[in-house]
């Protein structure tokens, strides 16, 4: 290590996977950082106490302790530590918990080298520590970090457009209006805007306007004072006040009652909140991010959403694409979820077998990323491990009836009907292939139907088909 590096602030990397330890340490060292590595929570806390690092890179799943609990201990030892949470978890709740527990940033495995180094650089800057010279990044120094959390995993053109908008708007005060189908990751997008902004150390408060009874929504947003109505047994600050200095995320904004829309508009105009029953308003500094799975302009046309509020909120629109519009990201999301859920459930899964890799991107995914994550969770919970095969997938998936046997452009081989004479002279393997192909041809290429007729599992046929295709290439 160069002598100059000894004067630079240390980083502590707490990661239990040795291969990832080596990769992350190499990247950081090449960028000029001093790095101490720990493989357990106990070792990591000892390193923090000994080195008092400016930045800690913390895996949230460790063999001896939960990472969120360790994070709280680290912040007790050194409250100004910038913690970057590392996780393969696609759960929005996990990301929100990490941020609320005091994380400066979070990254989801696998992540790019540029984003990794940029996250470290921003964390150092947040702690008012000069980053080392020679640190490299795929992003400009003044551009915020974007994280591959859950629905943000993948590199499709649709998601690249989302990343670009977030990068442009994150550090401004402009209101962001996120649209998209249910399950596409709208709350995650809001969290990315918050985490990439100057408010990242402030609170991120999420409120689902469609999940709270209308008669309680005003109290949930603006708070109430004790005795202001039946059941108000204590003062409550409300989401807007709780988000002071940070971001208030209003999900399902189009479900908000018209009367409350009027008060929200006044809040946006004055930046003041007045709890139910209070006599004086209070000034707060909050950035608004909202979302809906409906067409907000159609809600305006139907008189369900105030037009002036719509134009006040619809400053920077971000549309979260459906999973069917970025099918090239399906396998990345599925494999990351399989790794994480396998760790959580203590199951050793090797990955997706070729038949599943071929099938998943072709499914319609009406429930989007949420549905895909639920499917992978179902597979992990109900199976012991190994390769994920088609019969492990839960029922109810809209599996295409036509399953190609060969690469595009190649016809399915084999006659529709086979007689005994047609098999004479063939090897046993050739006869087996002819029988399988003939059965598939009779049933329109449907592997599940052919498997039932042949009394074998669909995964057996998928493996044989994949082997034949490999030989043909």
Strand content: 5-15%
Give the number of domains. 4
Q: Could you give the distance between the termini?
A: 48 Å
| Number of distinct helices | 19
- Total strand count, please? 14
The fourth-level CATH homologous superfamily of the largest domain is Response regulator
Biggest beta sheet attributes = 5 strands, parallel
CATH domain class of the largest domain: Alpha Beta
Q: Tell me the strand order in the biggest sheet.
A: 2-1-3-4-5
CATH topology of the largest domain: the name is Rossmann fold
Class of secondary structure makeup: alpha/beta
Radius of gyration: 27 Å
Mean pLDDT: 79
- The quaternary structure here is single chain
Helix content: 40-55%
**Poorly predicted parts:** 1-7, 128-151, 402-417
Name of the CATH architecture of the largest domain: 3-Layer(aba) Sandwich
Backbone shape: globular
């Amino acid at each position: 290590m160069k002598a100059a590096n000894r004067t630079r602030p240390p980083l502590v990397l707490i990661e239990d996977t040795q291969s990832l330890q080596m990769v992350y340490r190499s990247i950081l060292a090449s960028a000029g950082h001093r790095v101490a590595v720990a493989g357990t929570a106990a070792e990591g806390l000892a390193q923090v106490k000994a080195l008092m690092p400016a930045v800690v890179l913390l895996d949230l799943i460790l063999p001896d302790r939960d990472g969120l609990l360790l994070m709280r201990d680290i912040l007790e030892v050194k409250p100004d530590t910038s913690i970057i949470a590392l996780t393969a978890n696609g759960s929005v709740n996990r990301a929100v918990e990490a941020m609320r527990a005091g994380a400066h940033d979070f990254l989801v495995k696998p992540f790019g080298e540029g984003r990794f180094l940029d996250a470290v650089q921003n964390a150092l800057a947040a702690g008012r520590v000069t980053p080392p010279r020679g640190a490299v990044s795929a992003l400009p120094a003044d551009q915020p970090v974007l994280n591959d959390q859950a629905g943000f995993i993948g590199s499709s053109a649709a998601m690249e457009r989302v990343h670009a908008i977030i990068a442009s708007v994150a550090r401004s005060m402009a209101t962001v209006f996120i649209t998209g189908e249910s399950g596409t990751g709208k709350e995650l997008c809001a969290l990315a805007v918050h985490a990439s902004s100057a408010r990242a150390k402030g609170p991120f408060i999420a409120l689902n306007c469609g999940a709270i009874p209308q008669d309680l929504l005003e109290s949930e947003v603006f708070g109430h004072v004790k005795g202001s109505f039946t059941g108000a047994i204590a003062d409550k600050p409300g989401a807007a006040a709780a988000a002071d200095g940070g971001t208030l995320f209003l999900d399902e904004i189009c479900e908000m009652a018209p009367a409350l829309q009027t008060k929200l508009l006044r809040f946006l105009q004055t930046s003041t909140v007045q709890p139910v029953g209070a006599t004086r308003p209070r000034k707060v500094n909050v950035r608004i991010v909202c979302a809906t799975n409906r067409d907000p302009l159609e809600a305006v046309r139907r008189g369900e959403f105030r037009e002036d509020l719509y134009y006040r909120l619809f400053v920077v629109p971000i549309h979260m694409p459906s999973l069917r519009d970025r099918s090239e990201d399906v396998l990345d999301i599925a494999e990351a979820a399989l790794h994480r859920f396998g760790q959580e459930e203590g199951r050793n899964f090797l990955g997706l077998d070729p038949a599943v890799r071929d099938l998943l991107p072709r499914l319609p995914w009406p429930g989007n990323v949420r549905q895909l994550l639920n499917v992978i969770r179902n597979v992990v919970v109900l199976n012991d491990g190994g390769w994920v095969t088609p019969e492990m997938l839960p029922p109810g998936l809209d599996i295409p009836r036509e399953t190609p046997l060969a690469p595009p452009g190649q016809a399915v081989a084999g006659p529709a009907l086979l007689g005994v004479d047609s098999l004479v002279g063939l090897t046993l393997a050739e006869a087996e292939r002819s029988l399988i192909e003939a059965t598939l041809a009779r049933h329109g290429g449907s592997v599940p139907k052919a498997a039932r007729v042949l009394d074998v599992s669909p995964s057996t046929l998928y493996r044989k088909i994949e082997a034949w295709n490999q030989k043909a290439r």
